[in-house]
Write a structure and sequence with these properties.
Blueprint: H1 7-20, H2 27-41, H3 96-117, H4 120-166
């Protein structure tokens, strides 16, 4: 089988030889495994995809079968106390309206509470850093404009010389 032109049989024979190693086996066991492999390889007419057996084990890879929900689609209520809306998605706890209102409340509370906990020296330091970065940005932009101004002057220089010669 290792000298076969069929890649499936070559692979199966190599796998069988590797797994079997020096262990003894009967001809009946070998024939049984070959017959099972042949059945799997020739099962092309069925809807089930043919998978090769792992040599020496007599089992194929399990096929994925999605679970069917026996309960059917159940609508789940929002977890907010007085809300009668249904959740839009099965893994959400709150309806979209309640979720967005809770999110807005929590971020507003967290931001104000977080700012209250920041010491005055840190606030001052951050304000100074922002001012410095704005100044540095303005200086950088001014420096970047200088080469453009020089290039514009150089482009205008030949035109000025031509006008002077004409006079």
């Amino acid at each position: 089988m290792l000298s076969s032109d069929n890649e499936d049989w070559k692979t199966w024979a190599f796998s069988f030889a590797t797994q079997q190693g020096d262990k003894s086996y009967t001809v009946a066991d070998l024939l049984e495994k070959v017959v099972n492999q042949d059945k799997l390889l020739n099962a092309g007419g069925t809807k089930k995809k043919a998978t090769t057996l792992l040599a020496g084990h007599g089992i194929s890879r399990p096929a994925f079968k999605p679970r069917k929900n026996k309960k059917g689609k159940q609508k789940k209520r929002c977890a907010t106390k007085d809300c009668k809306n249904n959740d839009g998605v099965h893994f959400h706890k709150f309806c979209d309206d309640c979720y967005s209102s809770r999110k807005e409340k929590s971020t507003a509370e967290n931001e104000s509470a977080a700012l209250d906990d920041v010491p005055a020296t840190v606030r001052e330091h951050n304000r100074n850093r922002k001012l410095m970065s704005q100044r540095n940005k303005q200086q950088r932009e001014a420096l970047l404009q200088q080469p453009n101004a020089l290039l514009a002057d150089m482009a205008d220089a030949p035109a000025k010389k031509n006008k002077e010669k004409e006079r």
